[in-house]
Structures are given as structure tokens and as C-alpha cells.
Amino acid sequence: MPRYRLLIEYDGAGFVGWQRQDNGLGVQQVLEEAARRLDGRPVTAIAAGRTDAGVHALGQVAHLDLDRVIAGDKLRDALNFHTREHPVTVLAAAPVDDEFHARFSAVGRAYLYRILNRPAAPALDAGRVWWLPGDLDAEAMHRAARALIGHHDFSTFRAAQCQARSPLKTLDRLDVRRVGQEIHVIAEARSFLHHQVRNMVGSLRLVGRGKWAEDGLAAALEARDRTAGGPTAPPQGLYLTRVDYP
Amino acid sequence: MPRYRLLIEYDGAGFVGWQRQDNGLGVQQVLEEAARRLDGRPVTAIAAGRTDAGVHALGQVAHLDLDRVIAGDKLRDALNFHTREHPVTVLAAAPVDDEFHARFSAVGRAYLYRILNRPAAPALDAGRVWWLPGDLDAEAMHRAARALIGHHDFSTFRAAQCQARSPLKTLDRLDVRRVGQEIHVIAEARSFLHHQVRNMVGSLRLVGRGKWAEDGLAAALEARDRTAGGPTAPPQGLYLTRVDYP
């Protein structure tokens, strides 16, 4: 059966997350039902990152197997026809080798976390940013974030329900920069623990507020204990922006 | 009574436009009701641009008179407390001279029109852009737009229901440029006729598609007849970005 790779954008607001669940609609279900209408039989879609409820994607990658052989552009348009009632859109589709696996073949994942740092709440970007009015020192956050780069035990930033075998991960990038009225946190790694980006952002906020010293992040990491980390940042500021393959 | 100037952002999607109307909620009403709760008596808000249903604002300006004297930041926060259930936010508020009139004192207005030009429909920007898949020559659109710059009779781009006394306007800027997957049209003038920007964008689309030659816009302008223009572009791509005062 021919395998296809999809590049996907979605607004996470109305979904229980990527994965199919009993308590609401998952992005996976929207795509699988679109593919089923196309292929006439149940189809499973596997994604690179199983984003949580409310988390957005600008560049999620998934794969699925179809009975039929179809050109990438035609598959993209046909899937989009069936997903059109939902804020899920296939940006690109292409046939790939049977060996390709969206999750296990991925060698890198990039996330963007958007903080809106201004006195007024967002109107146009409601549900798309974490609104934090008041002083927030982006440069201090960036300096503090240096401590997390590299190969570490990230237990402090790991959700209780995380299913990864090990808390050891290598963080390749954690940049914090001011972009107009927003503060962007960019995180890149081969893979992340559950809630890792949101937990890191929640701790960075404490540094930005001056509640933690700049070395507070290093101390929290060292503790290897979730209770040593800051609160989890809300999902609506998080975007899966890119997945890398060899 | 002290007069205050407000800088306002809103998502036009759920509104019948700026103005109060019987058939739905206007942005004006949301602000006036917020001000009424603050001041304890009916308040009228006057805006620089009476945007249509579905049109957004990043920098609308309005003024209103209150009984009470209140610092700008406090007024901003108090109004935002009362508008919080709606996608309307006051970015800034400041006391102004009684002579200030948001509409009649304005000497310039700037609009941005966002076209999403890619095969896939928008997921995150649904309701925020005009989705036009397929070839669209932004450079040809920009060259064609040169013909509209200056002082002209804009009857070709004027809505039938326009209440302006004269179709003569001076267009200061009409730039078309590609920004990633989007095409941005930026229009600036002292003031615009009703639907003028959307009607100009609708005609520019015909040039971009190759349905009109590049001099088609000049010919349409010359005709001084709405039926010589292209169809009206939809409201969701339009943003009032800035209002200028002396």
C-alpha cells in the first residue's frame, strides 16, 4: 500500500489534541475521516508530535497508507475538501517510501511559544498567545535559558503522565526574543518530554518577572523534580512549527 | 466633560461592523456599554473609520466624553474589563482636548488587505485573510495599482450606498507586495469612499490573475462607473491599521 507524508496546519483551540479520544474531537480523527472518505476504508494517521489540547501546528507531519495511488497535490486537495469544516488544512502531501514513519523517522522538532506582553488583552490573537501584561525581561529569560541547552535529565520539566522511558533529552535550542509586543520562545530538540516546552516556558516566565534569579533555571533542572519547576504555561501559545527528517 | 481618545483593536468577524445596528452587535455598542458601566450614564463613542461587518482593526481610533476624570491607563484597563467577553480591546487611552474629533480631525487612514495565496485554505488564519489559491502576480498588481495613486474620481470603486458628498479622493499609497505565502495590499489616504479599498483589491485580483491587462485598472478608473470595476473583495482580509492626526 502506498504511503503518503502530509504537512499539516491546525488551530488547536477546538480539539482535544492530536490524538483520537473519547471526550472530544482530535485532529487525527478529522484527517482519518477525510482519508476514509477518499479511500473507502479505515485509515490510520500517525503524527510526528502528539500535540495537547489547544496546541497549534504550523508544520505538523503525519503519514498514512492508502489503497490508491494518487498524486501529492491531488491528495492534498481531496483531504482539504473533506476537512474544510474544521480548522485543519493539509499544506502539502507526497508519496514516501514504506520505511518512512512520521514519528520514528523524525530527527528534530521545533516549537514556537508566543507570549503577548502588553497591557491590553489580545483581540485578534485571542486563543493564539499567552497574554502576560506587566514587566517581563526577555533578555534575562534568554540568558537563563542557556542552562537548559544540552543533554540533561529534564524530570523537572516533565509531566506526571509522560510516557517516555527516560527523562534524558538533548535540548538543541532555547531562544527567547522580543518581537514587537510579543516574546517568542523557540525550542528545538530531537524529541521532547510531555509538557516539556510548556513547563520550560512557565519557569522562564518566573525569571522574566524577576521572581527567580537568572540561575534559577539551572537550579530547577538540577533538582530533577517537577515540584522544583514553575507552573505549566497554557497550551494556546504553543505551535509545532517544524519536524525534521534525515 | 473630559474627552478621551482610544486606540482600539478588534476582530470584526462577529460584528455587524463598527456602527450600532438593529440586526446585530456593533463594536461601537460594546465600547459604549463598557463606558456606560464606568460612567453610570449613556456614552457615545465616535470612530475614525466606520468599518464594515467582518472588517478588523489593529489601530482604530475613537473618542468619547465621560463625566469623570480618569488617568489614561486606568480608563484603558477599566474598559477592557468590561469588553473582555468580546474580541475588542483598548490598546491605549488618553485625555484629549475638547476640539479633538476621532473622525473629523483625522488627516490620514491606513488599511492593510491580506490575501493568502497558497493551495491550502487557512486553518489558523481562517476569517483573517482572503484565500486565493492559484497563480497571482503580485508584481503586476503593484504596477497596475500605480494608476490609482493621486487625486481622482473614484466612482468605479464606490459602493452604491456610499454617503460621501463627492467621489473625488486623493489616494496617497497603494502598494502590493508578497510576504511569504501572503500578498499584502497597503492603502493610505486622507479618507476613503465606502468599500473603496475592497473594490480596489477586487480589481487588483483580476490583474493578478491575468484577466485584466496591467492598464485595466486605469481604464476602470477612467470609466467612473462601478460596473467597470471588479467584484468587491470580502471583508475578512481587511484591517484598519492606523489613523493619523495632525
Short description:
The structure is a homodimer of 246-residue chains. With 246 residues, the first copy, chain A, is α+β, with helices and mostly antiparallel strands.
What do you see in this structure?
With 246 residues, chain A is an alpha+beta fold. Chain A folds into 2 domains: 94 residues, Alpha-Beta Plaits (2-Layer Sandwich), CATH 3.30.70.580; 137 residues, Alpha-Beta Plaits (2-Layer Sandwich). Helices cover 22% and strands 29% of the residues of chain A. The first copy, chain A, is built from 5 helices and 10 strands; from the N terminus they run βαββαβββαβββααβ. In chain A, strands 1, 2, 3, 4, 5, 6, 7, 8, 9 and 10 form a 10-stranded mixed β-sheet that branches. The longest helix of chain A is centred in the N-terminal third of the chain and has 13 residues. The two termini of chain A are 23 Å apart. The model of chain A has no long low-confidence stretch (mean pLDDT 96). The interface between A and B is medium-sized, with 25 and 25 residues.
